[in-house]
Each structure stands twice: as C-alpha cells, then as structure tokens.
Amino acid sequence: MSRQFTTTVDENTEIRFLFTPEDHGVRTFRNGDPGYPGTPAEAELLSIKINGVEISIDKQPEEEIERWQNLCVDYAENTIADEQVLQYEEEQERRRELFE
User: Fold this and answer.
1) CA dist., res. 75 & res. 38, Å (int)
2) Which of 6, 11, 16, 72 is an S-S bond match for 47, by CB 3.0 to 4.6 Å?
C-alpha cells in the first residue's frame, strides 16, 4: 500500500513523494506452489521545490535523484516506525486504564 509524504531535506529542498514499502516476498505458499520475489522499498518523487521554486525532476542528475529517493525512503520508514511505536504505547495505556 503506497502512501504520500512531504519532507524537507538539505534545508531548502522540499520533496513530495509516493512511498511504497518493502515487500518481503513469499518463498513458497503453504500448498507448495512457488512464491514470488520481494521488492525493495521505493520513493517515487512527485515534486521538488528548492527555495520555494518547483524544479523539473527529469532534468536533475541521476545521482541526485537517487540520493533524494534514498533520503525519502529513510524518512518514510522512520515516520512509519515512529507512528507504530506511538500506536502501541497508546494501546498499552488504554489497556492499563481498563484494568485500573
């Protein structure tokens, strides 16, 4: 399931992107059928603004695009992990309140 994010990198660079999490794949199904390979997490860059001015993504050097994509994947994975921790802590608090 893909999810859209916006982050700021390099102080003045704002990136809007679509994040698709890693799929670990399936080696074999329970019935013995062959599974499918996994795919790495990826970030599809939707727009980039530098100092508030939108730039053309396709005119940027490939290594810069790859760097931005890696930063975006890291940002999305960390954000999702933080959300999961918060959700877990909130659930634990609700359970404690039930048993008080």
Assistant:
1) 21
2) 16
